[in-house]
Amino acid sequence: QVQLVESGGGLVQAGGSLRLSCAASGRTYSIDAMGWFRQAPGKEREFVASISWSGGSTFYADSAKGRFTISRDNAKNTVYLQMNSLKPEDTAVYYCAAAMRPAYSRYTYLREATYDYWGQGTQVTVSS
User: How far, CA to CA in Å, does 77 sit from each of 64, 68, 91, 111?
Assistant: First the structure.
């Protein structure tokens, strides 16, 4: 079992920044990769970014490239999502997720089914 707890969400003006954190506990030694997803009101949950737990390889959705940065601190079992130049369309509940099985293509990390454990989510609201 892996437990995930997100934090760092809040209300920010357009153009501002936020850093989300996801603290993992439990069987963290078995994690293959971590991902961030988001779900806006009335929309399906969508992939934002992922990072491999060991090598640190990253992968981003087009909407996140150039503005968001995913990173991890293995010593703290924590993954971060630094979000800059925020836009109102970034408003959503942000979820972190842990994948326990190795994937053979980075595109596998776009899929929700790849992830075995999910956090409760943290709300990000960007005002215009």
Answer: 23, 20, 26, 22
Nearest C-alpha neighbor of 99 from the set 29, 47, 35, 36: 35
CB 14 within 8 Å of CB 126:
yes
What are the start-end ranges of the E strands in 1-128?
2-7, 10-13, 18-26, 33-39, 46-52, 58-60, 68-73, 78-83, 92-99, 117-118, 122-127
Give whole-number Cα distances, 23 to 2, 14, 34, 77, 127, in Å.
10, 27, 11, 6, 27
Chain mean pLDDT for the chain? 95
Distance CA 67, CA 84 (A): 5
For residue 14, pLDDT over 80 is answered with yes
- Among 66, 116, 76, which residue's Cα sits nearest to residue 96? 116
